[in-house]
Amino acid sequence: MNNVSFDLQPSLYAAADIVLTPSRAQHACMGVTIKEAMAASIPVIGSDSGGIPEAIVHNVTGLIVPLMKSGDIDNAAFQDAIVSLIGQRDKWASMGEAARERANELFSEETTINRTAAIFTRCMPKNA
Predict the structure, then answer these.
(1) How far apart, in whole angstroms, are the C-alpha atoms of residue 2 and residue 51?
(2) Strand ranges (DSSP E) for the chain?
(3) Which of 46, 71, 126, 128 is 20 to 30 A removed from 37 (C-alpha atoms)?
């Protein structure tokens, strides 16, 4: 699904048990979907590409699946990751809870504003 309206997103995340974010580009950005899923207490299974591993803590907030040596997505490894969470509701729930905590810690509006203000403060001339 592309360009999903903001009104529809909460119901889609509420219906999801796991969010998959495979990416074969080594320079893939972290993506808003990962942040939104984590904020919605949903574990994320993502590739070890780009900024994705900066958000997902393997076996804590979700699972990181290595790319194949060719740089392509390892579909079998993604399948194994999904299967490893199916039937383990406690593990899935604890990952979701940890994901939400991490999203609040790293990506909340307050954190973003405070980090941005700190950068501006450091860059201001001392005599201003």
Answers:
(1) 21
(2) 19-21, 44-47, 62-65
(3) 71
Structure tokens at 119: 């950068």
C-alpha 39/C-alpha 58 separation (Å) is 17
Reported confidence tier of residue 37, pLDDT bands at 50, 70, 90: very high
List, in sequence order, the alpha helices (H) in 62-88.
Answer: 75-85
- How far is residue 62's CA from residue 56's CA, in Å, rounded to a whole number? 6
Concatenate the DSSP letters of all residues of 25-48 into one string: -TT----HHHHHHHHTT--EEEES
Query: CA triplet 4, 7, 10: central angle to 5 degrees?
Result: 85
Domains and CATH numbers, the chain: 9-123 (3.40.50.2000)
